[in-house]
Design brief:
The complex is a heterodimer of chains A (297) and B (576).
Chain A: H1 2-10, H2 12-29, H3 31-38, H4 75-111, H5 113-128, H6 131-141, H7 157-183, H8 187-194, H9 199-235, H10 247-255, H11 263-290
Helix pairs in contact in A: 1-11, 2-4, 2-11, 4-5, 4-7, 4-9, 4-11, 5-7, 6-7, 7-9, 8-9, 9-10, 9-11, 10-11
Chain B: E1 45-49, H1 65-71, E2 79-80, E3 91-92, E4 100-101, E5 107-111, H2 128-137, H3 148-151, H4 158-162, E6 172-176, E7 179-183, H5 203-210, E8 228-234, E9 238-243, E10 260-264, H6 270-279, E11 283-285, H7 292-300, E12 307-310, E13 315-320, H8 330-339, H9 342-347, E14 355-357, H10 390-399, E15 412-418, H11 421-436, E16 440-446, H12 448-456, E17 465-471, H13 479-486, H14 507-516, H15 521-536, E18 540-546, E19 548-551, E20 556-557, E21 560-561, E22 567-568, E23 574-575
Parallel strand pairs in B: 1-10, 1-11, 15-16
Antiparallel strand pairs in B: 2-3, 4-5, 5-7, 6-7, 8-9, 9-10, 12-19, 13-17, 13-18, 14-18, 20-23, 21-22
Classes of the chains: A mainly alpha (297), B alpha+beta (576).
Amino acid sequence: MQLFMRRFREDRVAVAAAAFIVVLIAVAIFSPLIRSLAGAPDPNLQNPNALDVFGTPTGPSSAHWFGVDELGRDVFSRVLAGASVSLQVAFIATGIALVVGTSLGMIAGYYRGWADTVISRAVDVLLAFPILLLALGLAAACSGIDGCLGGLIQPGKWLVIFVIAFVNWTYVARLVRGQTLSLREKEFVEAARAMGSSDRRIVFSEILPNLVAPIIVYATLLIPTNILFEAALSFLGVGVQPPQASWGQMIADATSIFGSAPWFMLAPGIALVMTVLAFNLVGDGLQDALNPRSARS
Amino acid sequence: MLVIAALAIAACGGSDDDSGSSGSSGAGGVSTGGKPVDGQKKGGHLTVLAASDVDNIDPGQAYYTFTYEVLAGTINTLYSVRPDDDGSNPVPDLADGQPKISDDGKTVTVKIKTGIRYSPPYNKVVTSKDVKYAIERAFTPAVPNGYINSYFAKIVGVQAFTDGKAKEISGIDTPDDNTIVFHLTGGDIVGALVMPVTSPVPEAYARKYDEAKGQSTYGRHQLATGPYMIKSYQPGKSIEVVRNPNWNADKDYKPAYLDSVTFAEGYEDPGVATRRITDGKSQASGDFTIPPDQLKSLAQGSKKDQLIVSPGAGNRYIGVNTTIKPWGNVNVRRALAAVLNRQAMLQVRGGALLGEVANHILYPTVVGFEEAGGLKGAGQDFYAAPQGDLAVAQKYMKLAGYPSGKGSSSTTVLIVGDNTGPAKLNAEIVERAVSQLGFKPVLREVSHSTMISKYCTVPKAKVALCPNLGWAKDFADAGTILDPLYNPKNIVPQGNVVTPQYRGSGIGADIEKAQALPAGKERVEAWAAIDKKVSDLVLNVPYIWDKYPVVASANVQMVNQLWNQGSIDYTWSSLK
């Protein structure tokens, strides 16, 4: 652990990116307080008086630092609120994908046989789909007024989380299955088995701890992908529902008026790029720190 | 007619300069109606860019604004409206003079012009029997027509004809080839004689198409009597109209300057289409929404003359389903009207250039608008504040039985709105208004066509509020708005536009009574009273009286159909 921390600290770019993520999480949690300190309005407050006489959004000003959107809502407040949505979706969806993918991957890799066949073929089938199209199809199918699965899944944030997790567990499962197949043949597992340990004990006490490092690395790479995924779904109109703010939805709204209000796209766009970049840099840093064989140039 | 297209967002302001436009000047110097001018040139080809196809090219089935625009040059209805008229003053078209109405108003005699000939391949002379057949076929299942039962059902013998007990409608006489007589059980038919269904269709030619399996295919093979005829029609791609060689200019008031017109469809990106038109030559806009930023730059820039915004393009309202709690309570509906920021609803669509804040259903240019209160409305306090008034809303919520002035957050309100453009923004403003009342709004955004076909016209979908509905008159009679929208007899399981589904307060009887009145002051006042009633009961929440923008290339002398939501009239437009 100490070696890992030392190696990670040496990667200054990764440390800076991690600091940015910490700040971002703080911003997402304390956005109402930050808004209040900045004197910015509620992200959902519609203010037609902030539109010009043509009904188009006005640009940055002292009252609205990042300007307003087509409903006169403060873009600064909505970018803050969007951070919360993006992070929630990314963390929860990634968490679900990790739990499901790790569980099924370990079952497939450890037990092999019919369990491996069923899970691996399911993964193969899901991976054969164009991911964005599959997600779009699922999201669109569940975006009706009744939702889907008998109303269990309703349009909105949770639908986006479900769709992203549904798509992403396959990658985790494949990674974990491969690792488990390799680990189950290692001497320490053989030793545990010879000592009479149960399968459950072997899986949770011997194999799972050895999967943590690659899973963490993969998770840090999956989070930014999922942030972009959420943004893409919202951009395409099947993401979070109004009036909830989402960076992807804000960018989508901004495209139609880009000619007259280019600044509208700037704030959510920069927030999205910075966030994704930060997670990717942290992911790279973790990978380097956790992998003793990796050499940094 | 149902306003299907999500109409454009526009802009106002700028200078008061009104340079060069043939129409009158509106806000910001933008022309508010392209009128004919002296010295228009003959010849040339115009291309009209459109996003979608016509609803049905058959004049017996056509019911969309864009279809009317296309058919304006190919058919002659008994009466029609000049482009610079809002529909109040129909003039004889196929008819030869004004209709003769009997003293009791129950017999209407129309003489039709002699020597009008059909386009090739038929080439024969139009007779009054062709008009009779055109109306009769619209009562058959092969020619589904959206308005025939509303406006022509009071002809004697219609019931027997539709029941299959008679082979023809006994109440339509054709004593000679140039006379058609309508015998009515009551009401008024004269206003409806401008509808496309009154354009002649020769039975000898059309019957084989009308008797084809399923829907009639006559539209694809239709004959023209107007200055133009349809040369080719590729659904969803293009409609080409060329000069009708059998057209007699001496018998038609339309000048028909252009040689030919192509309606190029499939321009789904309105930004690209608008740029192509304004930067190009000999083009004009058809059915699509002009993006707000382009409209703004057009209104402010050097291309201002290429933009025309026409008044009287219809109304916009929130459809309120009174069969769903809590909307059955009139005071809750009044509270919604009070809290709704109608000014914002207009502002996000483009502001004052594109309309006015509405406070009742009838809109300017509709006969009866002034009698119903005009721009000021009937003076109800819940329509008094265009920006919305929470205090008034809370007063009505208390009257509705909510002592705190706020509804229960456990009461969910399903709102189905558009998922794009300004209509989406309107839906989100309504969502906020509902939450201000204390209820829990559940907004579902879908495509406009899905919103119409699956939810807001389907009672069993149980949608509480539909924020993106609108209606435009069919002709100069307020009944063409109030009957379809509020008459309980029009409530149907599919395609229902009686969104409130309200059967109380004698609305149905009032409407039937008004429909039975002959044209005149009494009829106008009866409709105005109904407008006041439905607006007072807030059976829908009106929020905008629309104006409609169109654009054309710089070399196009644009003339608009004020009666048809401001669509370009190619029978009057020309190239410079």
